[in-house]
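Researcher: Here's the sequence for the chain we discussed earlier.
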Amino acid sequence: MDTITCIRTRRSIRKFTGKPVERKLLEQIVEAASYAPSWKNTQITRYIAVDDPVLKEKIASECCDDHNAAIIRSAPLLVATAMVEKRSGYERDGSFSTEKKDGWQMYDCGCAGQTFCLAAHELGVGTVIMGIFNIEKASQLLEVPEGQLICSLIAAGYPDGEASVPKKKTVSDLLTWK
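Model: Thanks. This is the structure I predict for it:
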């Protein structure tokens, strides 16, 4: 699949079949996502894969609203993206490089998350990125290492049905020339 087709056909998938995502396939997706751009090539994004049904249920019931909990319960795989803190957007002396301060770390983790989702789509795996969850509780349940912060949860699996194409803004709504 070419890049433009991949971008145009990727959808947020919220219902999955029960078929598990093979570990080797997830490794391929993460390897592709490692090519996402990052601040000074810091590559701060980390991935925590959860296929244990008990842990997935704990995250769903203790960290999420009903909507995201249902998505997690439907997915055979949950991937938390985490970022190594205090690297992206920082100088070696610990000072901020720009007025965006530590905002670059979310930007980098977001680029990696979208690259992950596009690679998954290319390989037949559906995904949806979720940002509404209790970060502190999820971090405890996932035993996130000190110095890392969870950025998002990505439900992943084989799509159960076709997702519709959401309405998109026009180029004239999005682009300004000066």
